[in-house]
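Notebook entry, structure prediction.
Reason for the run: the old model in the group folder had no record of what sequence produced it. Starting over properly, with the input documented here first.
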Amino acid sequence: MVYRWRYQSGSGEEVSGPQVAFTDQDEAEDWLVDAWRELLAGGIDSVTLLQEEAKVYGPMSLHLDPT
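New structure, fully documented this time:
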């Protein structure tokens, strides 16, 4: 199975981002831990994890929670 991230703007619209495919969920999440700051700097506000075309979870904000 293939996992990938869908990228969204602050208004929830889908935006372009790195088209990286992963073989499992852990690999996708590990990549995001390293890449989220770069994604945020590039105008991506949230991400959704997909397995093939099915949503695993998200959208998840890339902004730090101030609490």
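Summary: The mean pLDDT is 95.
The old model has been moved to the deprecated folder.
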